[in-house]
Amino acid sequence: MESVRNNAAIIRANIETACKRVNRDPASIRIIAVTKYVSIERAKEALTAGITDLGENRDDGLLQKYEAIGQKATWHFIGTLQSRKVKAIIDKVDYIHSLDRLSLAREIEKRALQPVRCFVQVNVSGEATKHGLSKDEVLPFIEQLRSFSNIEVVGLMTMAPYTDDEPFLRQCFRQLKLLQQRVQALGIPNAPCTELSMGMSNDYMIAIEEGATFIRLGTSLVGKEQ
Ligand SMILES: *Cc1c(COP(=O)(O)O)cnc(C)c1O
User: Fold this and answer.
1) Which DSSP symbol is given to 201?
2) Helix (H) or strand (E) holding 31
3) Three-class SS string for 42-105?
4) Among residues of the chain, what percentage have pLDDT more than 90?
5) Test site for ligand 1: of 1, 4, 34, 95, most ligand atoms within 8 A of the Cβ
6) How close is the Cα of 216 to the center of ligand 1, in Å?
7) Is the pTM of this model over 0.90?
8) Which of 14, 96, 200, 202 to probe ligand 1 with, by most ligand atoms within 8 A of CB?
9) What is the per-residue pLDDT across 113-162, written as a single tens digit (0 to 9) for each?
10) Nearest CA to ligand 1 atom 10
């Protein structure tokens, strides 16, 4: 397997290329190394390569890696989160990317010791297999979070369909950006919504061109071990 350092160098060059096209500062983009397919050792390699944001999509995977790595990393929970798992991870995660229902918000509100940075997950494409709120549900949902003192809606997150149809992907990301602007216009104190978590190995350059501030990279950065 290619070293994480080499993969990261390629990705950083690609980020620079995408940023140049749209006049963005590469420093405004944070790379999350998605370590769900790889070992603790490989996750540590990401840290050595200077990538300190790590993402896991399962509670057990997160806990296992957290135990080995701890607060040397910034932890992102990026997968579907069952309410009963909140308690186990809440004091370990820095960001939750998958807030998609009120019952989950209530559990986070109850368990958190301090405000938790959350992304509201949106199913922009309407694909049946994807989690997240429909576009129409996003604004009313965030309105309902107004009184939640332990939830800060830092941004919106989406997973685009796996396809090489570039115009379609671009359209997905653009719609998330437009929704973000509508959330910001609400002026809700705990929903600044300054961030966009979008772009994976297959589509991150397009996502950056459309305004991503967090990209979530598994295969292209740390690879896949099983
Ligand atoms: C697995 C996963 C990723 C990373 O996927 P790659 O295509 O391997 O980069 C990103 N986001 C989420 C939510 C994931 O589950």
Assistant:
1) T
2) strand 30-34
3) HHHHHHHCCCCEEEECCHHHHHHHHHHHHHHCEEEECCCCCHHHHHHHCCCCCEEEEECCHHHH
4) 96
5) 34
6) 6
7) yes
8) 200
9) 999 999 999 999 888 777 899 999 999 999 999 999 999 999 999 999 99
10) 216
The dihedrals phi and psi of 218, each to the nearest 5 degrees, come to -105, -85
Q: What is the tens place of the pLDDT at every residue in 85-97?
A: 999 999 999 999 9
Q: Is domain 4-217 annotated with CATH 3.20.20.10?
A: yes
- Residue recorded with tokens 């940075």: 117
Q: Which residues line ligand 1 (CB under 6 A)?
A: 34, 36, 57, 78-79, 159, 200-202, 216-220
Task: Identify the pLDDT of residue 226.
Answer: 65
DSSP 177: H
Residue whose entry in the numeric block shows the structure tokens 């830092």: 154
